[in-house]
Amino acid sequence: MDHVSGEPLSGVALSLPDLRINALTNRSGVATFPTTTLDSVRVMATRIGYHSLDTVVAVPSEGSMATLVLRRSPVTLAALTVRSEQAAASSLELARQIFEREVVVGAIGVTQAEVKAVPAIAEADVFRSLESFSGVTSTNDFGSEIFLRGGDFDQLAVFLDGAPVFGPHHMFGMFGLFNPDAIGSVEFFKGSIPARYGGSLSGVMSAQHRTRSGSGLGVSGGLSMLGLRVAARGPVPWSDGSWLIAGRRATTDVTGIAMPYSFHDLNLGTWSYLGEEHRLGWSLLASQDHFALELDHLGESLDSEWGNLVSSLTWSWVPNNRTNSDLTVYFSNYDATVSVGNEGTRPSTRNRIGARGVRGQLTIRGERIGVRVGARAEVGPVSLLASGPGAYIESQVSDSYRHGSLFAEVERWIGRLRLAPGFRIGAEGTGSRSFLEPRLSGRLHIGAVALSASLDRAYQFLSAVRDDRYIVPGPPMWSLRTAGLPASVADGISLAVDARPGETWTGSGGFWVRQFGDNPRWRPDSARDLSALEFHDGHALGWDVSIQRHKGLLRGWASYQWAKVAFRDQEGGEYMPHWDRRHEVDVTLQLGEVSGWSASLRTRIASGTPFWIPAGYYHGLTYDPTIYTLGLGSPGNLPRGLGYSGESFTILSGTQGRLPYYARLDVSIRHSFRWRGWKIEPFLSVPNILGRRNVYLYWSTPSIQGNPQRVTLTPYGQIPTFPFIGIDFRF
Fold it and tell me: Please, are residues 13 and 81 in contact by the beta-carbon 8 Å criterion?
């Protein structure tokens, strides 16, 4: 029998060499031998996948049995190198890999095929595809920012090949930073985070470059109304490995939109196998965004630009099938600037992060127990500096970020129960603070159904600063929690039921509760400096169900979620953050190729998000980079124009309302054909094909001149029906 499960083993070759007798065990694991006068006998047992057994057995009395226990052993084969095109993992394979490896609630994987299945706005986008899964909230059409399990957008940690990315979006958050042709797969953790990750409250998005390559050169890319992207990959000629070069260039000039915006990014990477046990990988991502808008004849403008430079070097050592280790050295630079005013006096705010880090981990797997341990150290400057009065953020904050931690994860099988306790412990040097993040997860397997539960605590010391009341086009600005300011903390519990009845369908349902402490909120009334920063406590709860079809002509997924998020300010007043959506239904379907034609659709119906109801307005001089001359009764001789406006300004009340319910249907049609070795796919993607006018926000304007208590709310719509055309190609 098997020494772990106790199950009988059939097909075991048994030999009594002294008696020259051989036999095979039957389905019950039993083999019968004739009686002998010997008191003991030598027995040899062999079976593929188990250690051979050579032992002496006391001969039992006639009619009774002797029990032999075999221990499992990996099958060792000679080294074999295969050079051919390796297909990417399917959605079912990736889901199974993550489910078997991670004992946490809410872990999913996203493949390139699933990214492509979501109808595109201009082109396929990794972040927008994640918004279509259960437990994920987005607030509007214009942003690809992700809100998870009650947390803000900056509480999602984003990693690329193990290196953190601080500005993971293009075009004010409308598009994700990652070129879909350069990314192989994405692992996504919602709420419940493994102990090896840290520094975020609500989730982790870990992306990996596309490392697979065939025996020759491969080229892919696309041309859309947004711009051009190209990726090339191939084998490394001097070793068993591969390389990748990918680039993307986009500009609003292509669409004719009167908003001068452009961005570009570059991906580089190489991965080599140094013998059978060692693998070395290096990757780099460089990006730059630029926005410059001239608004009036006085020469005033709003300039925003930001960029990322992220690189990592990883050495992996796999001495056997039970042990592996990784050591990653990385740096991540983020540089962002917002400038307003005229050419002579243009105050600006600059945000810089320069993170340097090293992370190592060792994993040991057994048949009933596994251990993962490791450490991480990260240092670097973080600054948020204004060049003069009137800047977007009038602050002078500069410090060195120093962060070190140790983590451990243990996995233990007890029958059908799989327990995974873990912890992360460390210190943050800026405020001389230590922290302990305990994690506990468990999963009970009952046939094709698994019941999971997770409890966790997380801390965050680096947060984005964004005005909650006024929308300002520009990059996210990050601020370090310096000495004297509290770290944000979140405690959560998650429950889930996962069903995997076969190779076609999977389904899940979950419930979660989270408690937030000391979350930074910024709603400045006048001076825009960090002295107006407040720290609020909150809570969130929700549940969701989803189902996914992985095979067949028609594939896709559907989900429903209900959630409630509430915070309490320093005066004790409760409010709903702008990402609080109570109900949301999301369906994504993809029809496979028929005579070269394929189609996909995504529909989303959701409750409206909260907004602050205006109480009136006033005339005066104040700073708001989104308001310029409107001609609504400016006081005499006051500066007029962008940034400094002698105009009408809204006074927000303490009462909240909700936008109308949201509904949108997007469709996409593709046709693929081959030409001289190229696969070419023209496509047409139409967001909001039904033309519903979803409300983005309400502009507040005085309705009666001189009456400060009367305002008019004018709805500003989200993305209208607008066809996007493009072409994807692959060689």
Answer: no
